[in-house]
Amino acid sequence: MAQMDAALEAPKKKSLLPLLIGIVLMLVLGGGAFYAVYSGLVLGGHESAAGERPKAQNGQPPVSFVALDPMVISLGESGARHLRFSAQLEVEPRRAAEVELLKPRVMDVLNGYLRAVDITQLEDPSALIRLRAQMLRRIQIVTGEGIVRDLLIIEFVMN
User: Fold this and answer.
1) pTM
2) What residues are paired with 153 via a beta bridge?
3) How many C-beta atoms lie closer than 10 Å to residue 107's C-beta?
4) Number of Cα atoms under 13 Å in the Cβ half of residue 65
5) pLDDT tens, residue by residue, 105-126
6) DSSP state of 48
């Protein structure tokens, strides 16, 4: 009879304390691991001098801009319409002098390309993104891969 009474009694409730302690420890250790990786204490803290890229004050890599001479390009067969174009090239500071030497070739490539583009494409406002990408690719071919990062169009006016 004693065995039946013991079997009929409800089982004791297990404590939730170990589960709560486990969850709290998991959150604390996970947060600590995130901070250690994010701050660079673990996995990529200090890079070697060969792989280290200098940073500007705002956290971005330093840049230099090489201004291209303003260009006026006659459009169409009659030459009655003109495009006024000026831009700057974004380069690493150590490569600015190198790009400055290649500026006449860059100007020649841009002049030839812009003369060949159809006037209807130049008039389309959404075409500027495609034109910019095409010009940047041509500039990168002239200067070499990885030297010019970006082309910033300062003035693009048709009259």
Assistant:
1) 0.61
2) 87
3) 14
4) 10
5) 999 999 999 999 988 888 888 8
6) P
For residues 62 and 54, the answer to whether their CB atoms sit within 8 Å is yes
Element at 113 (helix H, strand E) = helix 103-116
Own/partner pairs, 83-86, CB within 8 angstroms, 24+ separation: 83/114, 83/122, 83/156, 83/157, 83/158, 84/155, 84/156, 84/157, 84/158, 84/159, 85/110, 85/114, 85/153, 85/155, 85/156, 85/157, 86/153, 86/154, 86/155
The token pair that represents 154 in the structure block: 């300062």
Nearest alpha carbon to residue 157 among 125, 109, 116: 125
Query: In the chain, what are the domain boundaries?
Result: 15-46, 64-158
CATH architecture of the region 64-158: 2-Layer Sandwich (3.30)
